[in-house]
Amino acid sequence: MKLKSLSYLELPPTADFHCHLRQEAMMELCAPLVKNGGCDTVYVMPNLQPPITQVSEAISYHERLSRLAPDVTFLMSLFLHPGLNAAIIAEAARTGIIYGVKLYPAGVTTNSQGGVIDIEKYYPVFKAMEANGLVLNLHGEAVSSPPAAFAEADGAKAVTVLNAETTFLPQLYNLHAAFPKLSIVLEHVSTREGLEAVRRCGPTVAGSITAHHLWMTVDDWCADVFSFCKPVAKKGAGATAAGCFTQPWCSALVIGALEEAIDQGWVREEEVTREYIEGFLSGYGREFYKIPRTAEGPRIRLERRGEIIPEAVSSQDGSITVVPFGRGKEVLSLSWTRS
């Protein structure tokens, strides 16, 4: 498809299967912007403060989000922690709004201090998830080594932000081997090795890729604090909170990244078909999570109007300001239409 020659592109609504909407004032700013990015369905991450660990908490969070954005379908998840058991997993599956459980290695990213240290300890939970059809979402990074590890003489490879994803991949293989029928998502894949691992595992394992990871390399987050995320972008951090704000332009950013990839020769023009775009933005994720697609209903229209991502987005009262990823970049304008 010759993307740059098109004046507009009409598509089914996007489904974002890795979405952070935070809480309180930040949630009130971010949740109503979901539809601006072309999304009618989002899978919500549970790493709040405190994290969403109980079914009742997930239901309450779902209610707050739905009041802020009633036209959006919010798919909820639980934070993997020692209090989870088979009974809670079964209860979560019965709600019809909780679709999975998120595994964060302890301390690896924003609000993950109460995350997992020993994955095998949770095997009974994974068995229950497999039986109840819930998805295991993996923040696929090993925890960075302490500074002393760099001076060790035994030849052990220290873990840094640049190799944290590849170092974690044996855990993915182990989990898939132990629970071959468990649906697993390697979240926000940022390396070729991560993509290859997902493909090698087969149809019960999928990977998500964020809009900003399609654009960035290591130079971007090193030079710009507002482009810092975990996992960090690789080639081809201090106390900064990890995360990039893309929600109001997520569909447009993906299309823009494909255009850039064609220009750079990384992707052949004939590879970028309508089927591919619709699958990446919506279809593949809905199929994996068993979310039905409807042929009729609202659609999104992306067209060239010279829209520029602003330097900042603020709440109405000015109490919250967010700096978006790609600020100053020209993107396609999005509107909703009827099929």
Structural notes for this entry:
This protein is α/β, with parallel strands linked by helices and 339 residues long. It is 30% helix and 19% strand. The chain has helices at 24-30, 55-68, 86-95, 123-132, 164-178, 192-201, 218-223, 250-264, 274-289; strands at residues 8-11, 14-19, 39-44, 73-79, 98-103, 135-138, 184-186, 205-207, 298-308, 313-314, 321-322, 330-338. Strand 2 (14-19), helix 1 (24-30) and strand 3 (39-44) form a beta-alpha-beta unit. The relative contact order is 0.15.
What's this model, at a glance?
By secondary structure, the chain is an alpha/beta fold.
Sheet with the most strands: spatial strand order? 2-3-4-5-6-7-8
What's the Cα radius of gyration?
A: 20 Å
The poorly predicted ranges are: none
List the secondary-structure elements in sequence, H or E.
Answer: EEHEHEHEHEHEHEHHHEEEE
How would the global form be characterised?
globular
Helix content: 25-40%
N-end to C-end Cα span: 21 Å
GO cellular component, one term: cytoplasm
Protein name: Dihydroorotase
GO molecular function, one term: dihydroorotase activity
InterPro entries: DHOdimr (IPR004721), Metal_Hydrolase (IPR032466)
Please give a handful of descriptors for the protein shown.
339 residues, 7-stranded parallel β-sheet, globular, dihydroorotase activity, DHOdimr
